[in-house]
## 1
Amino acid sequence: MHKVLRVENLSKASILHEVSFEVAAGEMLAVMGPSGSGKSTLLYHAAGMACPSGGRVWLGSTEITGLSEDEKAKLRLHRMGFVFQQMNMIANLNILDNILLPAVQANKGRHRKSRAELTDKAKRLMEQLSVSGLEARSISQVSGGQLQRACICRSMINAPEILFADEPTGALNRGAAEEVLEALGRLNREGTAILMVTHDSRVARGCDRILYLLDGRLCGELRLGKPAAGTEKWREEQVNKWLSRLGW
Ligand SMILES: Nc1ncnc2c1ncn2[C@@H]1O[C@H](COP(=O)(O)OP(=O)(O)O)[C@@H](O)[C@H]1O
Ligand SMILES: [Mg+2]
């Protein structure tokens, strides 16, 4: 199976200790663990947003560790998507322009697309994530769940190979969290690999595989496989049993 992301012995001073794992094409992988165990740090280092003190990371066949800051920024813009708990939308741009921003930034060089082409693409994503009609709203005129789904549109606009999500439902109420989760699940079924940090077993139960991070070390893995209809409850029980065995 083709590997989208490969992390080998990733270390960060006293926070991460020789963490190794892979994300396969089409996989949705969750990282769980107590607060302060290094989950966010792991995600940011795996995405080349910070420099590790040891280890190597590959996106497909490109080694990220060793690239310059400029090269990493370009890689992130073109080949990775990001969804955070704090949504990082720009306040004086409307929803559509926020979604378009990475597309505009990436749209350089000889084969530039027209604004209409980019807008079409954004609108298709908005439809897919059920936020059509909100194009002209400001970010304060939509609900938390709508805003997070708009953030997912923004993160998908350059068709990334992998989506990194840090507690994507952490700031949402239960209904909104389920909408966001459903949206992520759909993108994953359509082929986008996802690496997600979560502390919520309802979120993790939808993933193919879960890793457990404790004090910067990987110390558990649960393989659930792709979800089948009607197995949600059983999957959540598996996750909770596994977590309690790990002392969660
Ligand atoms: N910028 C930073 N400088 C120094 N220590 C940090 C920094 N960011 C996080 N840490 C520390 O690294 C550890 C892991 O943090 P973090 O990755 O945010 O954990 P988690 O996401 O699992 O809650 C914590 O002990 C935290 O205090
Ligand atoms: Mg965190």
Note: The chain has a mean pLDDT of 95.
## 2
Amino acid sequence: MSHIQTISVGLGDRSYDVLIGDGALTESVKRLPALIPRGKTIIITDETVAPLHLATIIKILADADIAARAIVLPSGEATKSFGQLETLVNAFLESGMERSDAVIALGGGVIGDLVGFAAAVTKRGINFIQIPTTLLSQVDSSVGGKTGINTRHGKNFVGSFHQPCLVIADTMMLETLPDRERRSGYAEIIKAALIGDYDLFDRLEAAGAHALSGDTLRDAVADAVSFKAQIVADDEREQGVRALLNLGHTFGHAFEATAPKDIIRHGEAVAAGISMAFRYSVHLGVCPSKDADRVEAHLRTIGLPDGPKALAYSNWNTADLVAKMRDDKKNSGGRITLVLARGIAKAYIESDTSEDDLAKFMETRL
Ligand SMILES: NC(=O)c1ccc[n+]([C@@H]2O[C@H](COP(=O)([O-])OP(=O)(O)OC[C@H]3O[C@@H](n4cnc5c(N)ncnc54)[C@H](O)[C@@H]3O)[C@@H](O)[C@H]2O)c1
């Protein structure tokens, strides 16, 4: 029996499916010829993923009569750069890619964001297929069409919205993922639940540490994708509700941007940021403290930071953090916009934050 779930991201003529579950890749074979009509493609992956999964993908493509060549880039955030963007665009042009051809991003959020952006700007947009291989990329970055690279002015400061034509989230690929990456990706599942899916949080809380594996995890991946797909369908360009997906991220980005490179994983910063968002909501009197307690208890059970003190860096400076939060590209009018919560699964957007009050609050939590 097939356990593959199909979730549609409804965006009119740019709608696409996300296939989720153990064996989603094998299941995808019948769809690939229509998406790669000329029978040739380029797979872009990284040096960690290539030895683990590239041969499997090439074999699956061959079964669908598709010839693939691979470009293997270094692993890590530094790959989301202007230099690698140029490498990919040149490779796509040299191999004669046309708009109706699809290239394949095989890897985590770094590869997905970079390849998506290279696809977006090549000939004003060629197609791309996401095969996300980290938990974070399966539940979050591969869905929704945000693509981009980092600049010296900040992460993801250059990019575009460019939707994939198919996402294949084969949960079997997560078996090779180190525990720390798995936990980090799980933070985005908790985030989705805490924004607006109470039942999901309830199930995850009841499962405790078992939520990180097996059927509970597979179902949670599908639920988190479904939740995100709905928000993206309602607000593709982040003019409104999509900003809710930044729960924990304004604090989290400030932690990530302040700590030395590669000490904190994105999901760890987000987990600490979620705790800050809930605690700040309690401080403002809008959220019951027992809800913040439950959130932090679940983060601890999973082995995620339940606040900045649990991050692998401690030399914080409140003014620097607030300055980083002010630089967040989602702000407008020079004011910090935060996603706060009236309780579990009751997130809301607060665009009228007092910086003084926020700084004083942060001082008490660092
Ligand atoms: N576009 C979006 O909407 C969006 C959303 C969230 C995050 N992001 C971006 O995603 C990036 C982070 O993504 P990530 O956490 O997936 O990081 P990543 O792509 O760097 O992957 C993490 C590490 O895991 C390795 N890896 C990947 N798959 C593996 C597997 N199956 N087995 C073993 N190792 C594997 C990678 O080589 C890498 O070393 C950031 O750049 C962030 O800005 C984008």
Note: The pocket of nicotinamide-adenine-dinucleotide is lined by residues 46, 48-49, 52, 75-77, 80, 107-111, 113, 133-134, 136-137, 140-141, 144, 146, 155-156, 173, 176-177, 181, 266 (CB under 6 Å).
